[in-house]
Design a protein that fits this description.
The complex is a heterotrimer of chains A (519), B (400) and C (285). Chain A is an alpha+beta fold and 519 residues long. In chain A, 54% of the residues lie in helices and 13% in strands. In chain A, strands 2, 3, 4, 5, 6, 7, 8, 9, 10 and 11 form a 10-stranded antiparallel beta sheet that branches. Chain A has a 5-stranded antiparallel beta sheet with strand order 13-14-15-16-17, covered by helices on one side. Chain A has a two-stranded antiparallel ribbon with strand order 1-12. Chain A is elongated. By secondary structure, chain B is of the alpha/beta class. In chain B, strands 1, 2, 3, 4, 7, 14 and 15 form a 7-stranded mixed beta sheet that branches. In chain B, strand 10 and strand 11 form a beta hairpin. The radius of gyration of chain B is 23 Å and the shape is globular. Chain C is an all-alpha fold. Helix content of chain C is 71%, strand content 0%. The longest helix of chain C is centred in the last third of the chain and has 34 residues. The C terminus of chain C is likely disordered. Classes of the chains: A alpha+beta (519), B alpha/beta (400), C mainly alpha (285). Chains in contact: A-B, A-C, B-C.
Chain lengths: 519, 400, 285
């Protein structure tokens, strides 16, 4: 069953040679497709694989490589992409690359007011080549093989078999296409630009070909765009071709702004204004959420871990149900339930305690904050219960017996044994939960949209806004629509904040020390 | 373990089937749920006539713009999309739309306001099919005769309102600037003013002028008198109306199909004058647009011109969406329709919804102001002033 | 720690648990009730529908546009494949972190956690472009394919899972593998034939956690899948309420109720191993 070492070596060499061969083949074909950058990838990949399998030092990496590969491509690459975007002005009006924008502008055409129009008949030979007969004010033209020429009438190369005044064949082998066939070839016809009587002629809409002069000319050296119809020159200004009188040509394009977005974050009063209020609440929200969710989860886990408790399996399944429905569904259900006048929660409160017990869950600052924590508790405690339930069972029962012999009460047992032994392994998960809730966009956006508003804020900000929702509004409802570049710089900044907090937490909980220990 | 591996492999193979993108010679259309069924019928007709395949992809109305921005330049976008005219500013500035060429005679067959809405400069960027705006929708069983002034309406509304019994007289969904604009505009409130050339000036913000504040005061009064209540969102307002527990609401044509289903005897009318001023409502126009990244622009043009601009399709779209047609021959078929007349009366004083991208920064500040008024957390004048200042700050305009 | 309860002790425990379960279940019941209500409104419904009806379920299951059965099948496909592969990738990685000492081990483990904390706001655009490029060369793994979606999901496979599983592996005595190696087994064979069978509980745990997160994932899936026939359940369900005016609450609720069933089955099946798996994963012995 276990092959000999020699055989394994041979297999390995054969396998790696195959990989190398495939990589070279892929690289050559990619380079042929005109993507030299992409062509490097298979070579790098194959090189990495060979290194992995031959170098003893890379041995542990062999185990990690599959997971890390996905991590790098699907998580780290987007982070890099976000970082790159944060140094550009990408956003509404600057979505395309400069090449794309210039290309699109150069494709724009205009028809002079007195432009000639040409009715056309299309013909096709058995090989699939197209020919056109264009009929304009100055006569008939035949377009075939990439060139147009005036037709001599009568022309021996064209034949009107049924005598209806339209040619049925041209150039002997080309037969006229009916309208249905023309429609099927419109995608090709629309790309034709025919030089006719000194003017470029093309098909912009049915039924006629018409003169389509290029609207713009691009001067690559001076980076200016000239409107050929008006004779106006537009130069680059912050990623838009702009004339001296301020007229702009859309679309603009994205360009690098260096650290400009970051500078804006720190200097713009619009952004800095409510920042600290929002930051404070974000911190409190994430912290309280972890505390509340973990407390409830742990309490239930301790109750449900009790082997003497009847029906504990039923309770477990019921308690874990909130976890089973996608959050975007249940958050919306909660929103309806928390409505001031019509929600069932207030109806129950009023029925139990009278009209004064009605809570402005979504309308008052404190109510909305409480609602956010409540709903998040509902969404999150099953997860905490599951992991606490597991961790609890592993605690050595003899520890409690010893404690009991020493006369420790339940509270002391909990504080001295249960909690420390639980926190150690669960700390990374709690830190992760903190980070997740720090960025919990879905919950805030769907439940309160950050509302109620903070009175007198310089930019729209709400009492339940967390950093990510507050900045989302800024970036996506800003001056000129979306400012993705700004949003990207915010993402990077938030990441730095949360990474710092996590690092501190790691140190406080001793997770790092735990890691360094050898097992 | 081995069985799992075989299962995984098998599933992986099944998983990788169909892919779709805009390909030359085949039309791809993005439509939302109400338009998809109509488009499927037209697509089948087009395929039957010309043997050209047409695929309809259902994309949520709210997701379409964002997805087009990513998918379009990547060559993955549609050839034709169905959307609203106020997307124009953003889509054009992003280079996502292609101008549309229509014969002059065909343009004359449309409501000029609708054509105007899809013009950007001198270029037409969409073929309109329907206009939409809000109007006063009232339950004739509760309000048999509509008073001629808003003040009169409020008196009736007050009489109908009984929070204990769960009945209400007049509700405007909140916080919702779109539905509340009528209150502001009656006294001369506006969002963006126009400069001498008739172009919108994004720094001339009228949300804190006397008219806008007067409208906010009316809303504040409604709350104080218990007519308007906090938490009245779209589903609540319409839900009450469908149960016959609401005298009147401000709403659009999209609310009517369910009202018919619920058997409510309703009427549609222009919103009565407020403080002697005529309320203006936003008019939105829905239409077909062609992607700048389409490989089938001429084909798409043909599809729109010959297959969509027909009385039958326009009426079919009306039947399913309830929005009054912008195509005059189709509209003419509906002259006897009281709903359409009601919305048309309201639209007669309408303003096209501004289509510049700066609108994005208006909605959230304005909604916040309305929320504060409805929650009775701030007086109406200060709330509107704050909102206007927030918009100026966001847009980088000088604040007063 | 636990002993037999007195009658009072038993009473308060059940009282507390009943309150907690009521809290957990009430919104779900509300949803269930909406699914049997004809009203299509979550705000005016009663807990017991006045005229209970199966109409919403019938509409949902027979609709041409809302292809619930197909979406459920798509979801199961994507979720099961993703979860299985997640378990495999995580097991390999966690084993390396548990058994080998190498440069960058500590940084690697910390990095796994930190990287998951990056706000995903703009990741969509990057992933979209990535799949687009991938699709040009491998159309079966590009945009609008389940393979593409699975590949994206696998990016989150490591992270927390690796920590959980590494903790578990740490508790398995090395002596077992050492003796296998003496008998001539390669490290991989020792891992595959000796460690993995012992780690079955934690494998089940990771599978379940991955199953839950993948089964209810909406954002990435809605960005990557275009064609209604390719939709996963959450994407399809969001169609029901995405229409600004005209949300189909009843059908939506019916769909949500039906979508819970697979999860409940998987949870009940794996409950025992889930509990013991997390136990040993969390704590070193």
């Amino acid at each position: 069953m276990i092959p000999s070492d020699a055989l394994r070596w041979v297999l390995k060499i054969v396998f790696l040679s195959l990989i190398a061969g495939l990589a070279v083949f892929a690289a050559i074909s990619l380079a042929g497709l005109g993507s030299p950058v992409l062509a490097v990838l298979p070579l790098v990949g194959a090189g990495g694989l060979i290194y992995l399998f031959l170098s003893p030092r890379a041995y542990p990496l062999r185990w990690l490589a599959p997971g890390v590969l996905f991590l790098v491509v699907m998580v780290i690459y987007p982070i890099g992409y976000t970082f790159m975007a944060s140094t550009t002005n990408v956003g509404t009006g600057h979505m395309l690359s400069k090449t794309q924008a210039v290309h699109q502008l150069l494709e724009r055409t205009y028809s002079p007011p007195d432009a000639a129009r040409y009715a056309f008949d299309a013909f096709e030979d058995p090989a699939g080549d197209l020919a056109l007969v264009l009929t304009g004010p100055s006569g008939r033209f035949l377009y075939a093989g990439g060139e147009a020429s005036r037709m001599l009438d009568p022309d021996e190369r064209a034949a009107d078999d049924d005598g209806d005044g339209r040619f049925d064949r041209v150039l002997a082998t080309y037969r006229r296409l009916d309208f249905r066939e023309v429609v099927q070839r419109l995608a090709v016809l629309q790309t034709l630009r025919i030089d006719l009587e000194g003017e470029p002629v093309g098909l912009r809409s049915l039924p006629d070909f018409t003169v389509l002069r290029p609207l713009y000319a691009y001067d690559g050296a001076a980076a200016t765009m000239t409107d050929l119809e008006k004779g106006k020159v537009y130069a680059d200004k912050e990623g838009i071709f702009t004339a001296e009188d301020g007229e702009e040509i859309f679309p603009g394009y994205r360009r690098s702004v260096g650290l400009g977005n970051y500078l804006r974050l720190f200097t713009s009063p619009a952004i800095v204004g409510p920042f600290f209020t929002v930051f404070g609440w974000t911190f409190v929200f994430a912290g309280l959420t972890v505390l509340l969710n973990f407390s409830l989860g742990l309490a239930l886990a301790m109750l449900l871990n009790d082997p003497f408790l009847r029906l504990r399996h039923v309770y477990r399944v019921l308690a874990v149900l909130p976890y089973a429905v996608p959050a975007f569904v249940t958050i919306l259900v909660w929103r309806g339930m928390l409505n001031l006048n019509f929600g069932v929660v207030n109806q129950i409160l009023v029925a139990l305690f009278g009209a004064g017990a009605r809570v402005a869950w979504l309308e008052s600052a404190m109510g909305a904050r409480a609602a956010l924590l409540l709903v998040n508790l509902w969404l999150g405690f099953p997860y905490m219960m599951i992991i606490a339930l597991g961790a609890l069972q592993s605690i050595d029962v003899s520890l409690y017996e010893a404690a009991r012999v020493d006369g420790a009460r339940w509270g002391q047992q909990f504080r001295r044994i249960t909690l420390p032994l639980l926190l150690m392994p669960l700390a990374p998960l709690l830190i992760g939960s903190f980070a997740f809730n720090f960025n919990n966009f879905t919950l805030v956006w769907l439940l309160t949209e950050g509302r109620p508003p903070i009175i007198g804020a310089q930019t729209p900000a709400g009492a339940t806004d967390v950093l990510i929702t507050y900045t989302y509004r800024l970036a996506f409802e800003g001056a000129r629509g979306n400012q993705l570049g700004l949003a990207a710089s915010i993402s990077v900044l938030i990441f730095l904040i949360i990474a710092t907090i996590s690092a501190i937490n790691f140190r406080l909980t001793g997770t790092l020390e735990e890691l360094s220990k050898n097992v | 373990m081995k069985r799992v591996a075989v299962l995984v492999l098998g599933l992986l193979l099944i998983a990788g089937l169909a892919t779709t993108a805009s390909v030359a010679g085949k039309l791809l259309i993005w439509a939302d749920d109400t338009r998809t069924p109509v488009m499927q019928i037209v697509a089948a007709q087009f395929t039957a006539a010309y043997g050209v395949e047409v695929e309809i992809q259902e994309v949520g109305f709210g997701d379409m713009r964002g997805q087009l921005a990513t998918a379009g330049p990547a060559g993955e976008g549609p050839d034709i999309l169905i959307g609203a005219h106020d997307w124009l500013g953003e889509l054009i500035q992003n280079g996502l739309l292609e101008p549309i060429v229509l014969p002059g005679a065909m343009i004359d067959e449309f409501d000029p306001v609708a054509i105007d809405a899809f013009l950007w400069g001198a270029q037409l960027y969409g073929v309109p099919y329907a206009t939409e705006n809000v109007a006063l929708i009232y339950n004739k069983a509760l309000i048999p005769v509509l008073p001629s002034t808003f003040e009169g309406l409020l008196t009736i509304a007050k009489g109908l309102t009984d929070a204990e019994a769960g009945t209400y007289g007049l509700l405007i969904q909140q916080p919702d600037p779109y539905h509340t604009f009528a209150l502001h505009s009656a006294g001369g409130g506006y969002i963006f003013g126009t400069n001498a050339q008739g172009v919108l000036d994004p720094c001339d913000i009228g949300l804190d002028n006397a008219g806008s504040i007067a409208g906010a005061v009316v809303l504040d009064q409604m709350v104080k008198e218990g007519i308007e209540v906090a938490g009245a969102d779209y589903s609540l307002v319409t839900g009450l109306f469908y149960q016959g527990k609401l005298g009147a609401m401000i709403g659009g044509p999209w609310t009517l199909p369910d009202a018919v289903k619920a058997g409510i005897n309703y009427g549609v009318a222009a919103i009565p004058t407020i403080g002697g001023g005529t309320p203006k409502v936003f008019v939105g126009v829905q239409g077909f647009m062609i992607s700048a990244f389409s490989a089938n622009k001429v084909l798409a043009n043909l599809f729109v011109k010959d297959f969509l601009v027909t009385k039958e399709v326009m009426l079919d779209l009306y039947d399913r969406g309830g929005r009054p047609p912008a195509y005059i021959p189709a509209l003419a078929e509906l002259t006897g329709n009281a709903d359409i007349q009601g919305f048309a009366a309201s639209a007669a004083n309408g303003l096209p919804m501004p289509k510049i991208p700066q609108m994005g920064s208006v909605w959230s500040a304005w909604s916040d102001a309305l929320a504060l008024i409805v929650n009775q957390q701030l007086d109406p004048a200060t709330a509107m002033q704050n909102a206007a200042d927030q918009i100026r700050t966001t847009l980088g305009c000088p604040t007063e | 720690m636990y002993e037999k309860h007195s009658r009072l002790g038993s009473l308060w425990r059940h009282a507390v648990l009943l309150i907690a379960v009521a809290f957990a279940v009430f919104p779900i019941l509300w949803m269930v009730s909406a699914s049997f209500n004809d009203l299509d409104s979550m705000q005016f419904q009663k807990l017991i529908p006045p005229n209970p009806t199966l109409r919403q379920y019938r509409d949902l299951l027979t609709s041409d546009r809302y292809r619930f059965g197909l979406w459920m099948w798509n979801s199961m496909k994507v979720t099961v494949v993703t979860s299985a592969l997640t378990v495999a990738l995580t097991a390999l990685g966690a084993y390396a972190f548990s058994r080998f000492r190498f440069k960058g081990r500590r940084v690697g483990l910390l990095g796994l956690l930190l990287v998951q904390m990056f706000p995903q706001m703009l990741a969509m655009v990057a992933l979209f472009l990535l799949l687009l490029t991938l699709g040009e060369f491998f159309p079966w793994a590009g945009l609008n394919t389940h393979t593409g979606l699975i590949l994206v999901y696998l990016g989150g496979a490591m992270g927390f899972n690796t920590w959980l599983m590494k903790g578990y592996f740490d508790t398995i005595p090395r002596s077992l593998e050492e003796s296998a190696k003496v008998d001539g087994a390669t490290p991989f064979q020792a891992f595959y034939h000796i460690v993995l069978p012992l780690a079955r509980p934690i494998l089940a745990t990771i599978f379940l956690l991955s199953f839950i997160s993948c089964y209810s994932e909406l954002l990435l899936a809605s960005f990557i899948l275009r064609d209604t026939n390719q939709f996963t359940l959450p994407v399809g369900m969001s169609l029901l309420i995405s229409d600004q005016f005209g949300k189909r609450w009843g059908m939506f609720a019916a769909g949500a109720v039906l979508s819970v069933l697979p999860f409940v089955i998987v949870f009940i099946l794996s409950q025992r191993s889930l509990v013991s798996g997390l136990t040993r994963g969390g704590v070193k012995e």
